[in-house]
Amino acid sequence: MKWLDRTIIGIPFVWLLLFFMLPFLIVLKISVSDMDMAGQLSGFKLSNYAFLAQDALYVKTYLASLKYAAITTGVCLLLGYPFAYFMARAEKSVQPALLLMVMLPFWTSFLLRVYAWKGLLAEGGWVAQVLNALHVDQLLMAFGVTGGPGQYLNSAFSLVLGMVYAYLPFMILPLYANLSKQDGRLLEAAHDLGASPWVAFWKVTVPLSRPGILAGSMLVFIPCVGEYVVPELLGGPQTLMIGRVLWDEFFANNDWPMASSVAVVMVLLILVPLALFSKARADAQGPRS
Predict the structure, then answer these.
(1) Residue 193, domain CATH
(2) Quick one: pLDDT at residue 194?
(3) What is the reported pTM?
């Protein structure tokens, strides 16, 4: 049966080679090439990577992308964990309906949903009116995440709100899958030993749900780093992210080597948390017998 095992293991490797590694190597080759006036690629140079490290615009956008991705991941975790916990502890007959509620946004185009937030947050939109009535705009201005009273669009607030709305299901689903499989007898044992419900939650439930937390965080953080649609429609000049810079290099400046360099560095920024996630998951599973 060794040939069967090798085939099963080899299929994912072939898939990754054809649809990830090979395109990545092509982009890497373009990033170290020179582009002439006719659009032909030739030669070899590393000056694009040196320019990325020296130019403040690229450094700023990379850091902004990491910052907003981390904020979005944190907010999704704070909102998604209670919802996933409630779903996992709900009656079995109710869980399919709750799961459907989480997946329901996927039935609508991602672009249309983001466009809808433009109308909701614009002046006169009902979400903007509710926030104004609650004087939330004053609080947001105090934190410097909006441009002025009632100005929610084209700000850090609208950017994070849009990304949280778009990627919250990717946090809830792994957490729900993890929490629903936990053995409830462990909590009963903790209560029998004198632990309060809050202590049992922090000492038993949260540590056991760490794989779900890591999986959900990676599913949110990784796409947020390279997000283009939400920053373009809901963000502003003060929330420039690397996805917009990448688009401009490819289609506005028509500088494929520089755009490829931006893409390669962005992929490397994503691979680092992936490697950390894999190591953390391996540590959580422990050594195999």
Answers:
(1) 1.10.3720.10
(2) 86
(3) 0.88
